[in-house]
Specification:
161 residues, mainly beta, five-stranded antiparallel sheet, three-stranded antiparallel sheet, 1 helix, 8 strands
């Protein structure tokens, strides 16, 4: 009898995701071409996407802040697995972007950059779909791209790794 070393099996995971009030406001902002976060009234940290509560202080975050669509790459990885949710083929860079004024990075994709040039501290900006295609989904931001600004100093993002 021959030993089975591996098998290939398809995996399909369907999810129904229900947004709360805070994430609904965030997604409505995305549909308008805006990135909205919320600031904690106690520690003053800004969370994007909105969470509705500060995980540090355990208080509601109701102060809404519009953030710029520019930020800093804090970490990244090179993805080599295709995704049906993306309009481009691998390999591509998945980056954690700390938006200017935010206190927590979020993940997105980096394009318009050679993979060997992707680096921590790189300054990037969102590339949005055309205004008529905007909707309440992160796909309204096609990807991030490098911008002609000096890299951020490591000290400015080291606690966001």
């Amino acid at each position: 009898m021959e030993l089975v070393k591996s098998i290939t099996t398809p995996v399909i995971l369907d999810y129904d995701y229900v947004t709360g009030r805070a994430q609904s406001r965030f997604l409505r902002g995305i549909a308008e071409g805006k990135i909205l976060g919320q600031r904690c009234i106690e520690c003053r940290r800004v969370y994007v996407p909105s969470r509705g509560a500060c995980p540090r202080c355990a208080v509601r975050t109701e102060e809404e802040i519009q953030l710029p669509d520019k930020g800093t790459v804090t970490t990244f990885c090179i993805e080599r697995v295709p995704s049906e949710n993306l309009s481009f083929n691998p390999p591509y860079a998945c980056v954690a972007v700390l938006l200017d004024g935010a206190n927590i990075p979020f993940n997105h994709v980096l394009q318009e950059c050679a993979l060997e040039d992707v680096r921590m501290g790189m300054r990037v900006q969102a590339v949005w779909v055309p205004k008529e295609e905007l909707g309440p989904s992160m796909t309204s931001i096609r990807y991030f791209k490098p911008i002609a600004e000096p890299d951020a100093a490591f000290e400015s993002y080291k606690e966001h790794l």
